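Human: I would love a firmer grasp of how sequence relates to backbone shape in proteins. Could you go through the record with me and say what the backbone is doing? Here is the record:
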Amino acid sequence: MTCLLPTKSGKAAFLGDGLRRQIRRISARLTVRQSRCLTCASIRQHESAARVYRKSVESRSSIRMGIPSKGRMAEDTMQLLDDCQLKVRKINPRQYAAEIPNVPGVEVWFQRATDVVRKLVSGDIDIGIVGYDMLREIGNQDEDLVVVHDALGFGGCHLAIAVPSNWEDVISLRDLLSDKRWSKERPLRVITAYMNLATQFFADQGFDYVELSTADGALEAAPAMGAADCILDLVSSGTTLRENNLKQIEGGRVLDSQGVLVASRTALLNRPGTLAVIHEMLERLEAHLRAEGLFMVTANIRGSSAVEVATVLSSNGGQLLRGLQGPTVSPIYTYSTDGSSSKEGSYYAVSIGVPKSRIYETVKQLRKVGGSGVLVFPLTYVFDEEPPRWSALMNNLGLNVRDFEHLKIGEEFANDGQA
């Protein structure tokens, strides 16, 4: 057996180079592990000491948008933009920069999801698409970050606490909080990739004895390995939790998440053209997302006038035959056998927007009032007079929506440079 003696320099005597390197690696891992752990004693006082240097608007003239570069979030983002006629084109597949031909002047940068948020905060990009969970964790409620669209319809999941399935007495957050096993000497050990959200959540819920640690992946294995008591992680279907003998608990749901469109408040207010780009993106996104699952049902119905047909639809079909705002009723010009216009037994075409789940029900209702020749086709876009989220954004920014009505018809804005 070899005896290792520490020297004044802190190095071990009589060590071979290989063993010396191994000890250094173990020491480094322990140091990292200790630095990445937040104990309950400091959880309420914990604040990030890092200050982000935010670049000025004048540092560049271009409008930049950041989107995820890898994974399912990246694929869904690209597909959504493509569906909205905002297809991203990479000039060079090896580069991280791209463009959107339908929105000239916008640079698109492919980044890690975490870096999309960081670069929004630092002012390196102006607009971004990212998961709401990442926005809250990395952005940490930065006042410059504005959620422009909060429901892009992909990446749906939630952040939740999961405990071992054999903890039969722990079925709620209240049970976890009152568990007598946790003390100052033996705190509840939670492993998570969301340190900011976890810190805030456990402090808000009144936990006195918690130790938070972080890892890069495979968190579900930590309780079985004895590295943690429970985890705080994203959950989609819950299958991975069940396969690793974990369960969610009542009250342990921290937040719901999906893809969101985010922008820098500073850029929106001060970078020329940014508001116009956001308005166009909102118009396209809202029109596409609203149209998803909607179908147009058209039928021919006999009647003496459009008013009569509309009355019949309203009185017999109820809300189902009223469509989005009301049925569209227009005359059909039929001809007799000799080619002359025929007015007897006039037909009217009725068009109604309905959800996919109620198509057949709508067809049967139209038949009841004499409908025939029914056509059904999907809707691609449904444009409102103005996207509701645009009005909400104007209110958030302290701007008057009437001052930007020119954007609805594509006119240039000549007063303050926002175009």
User: Anything to note?
Assistant: The chain is about 30% helix and 25% strand. Residues 1-36, 40-49, 412-417 have pLDDT under 50 and may be disordered.
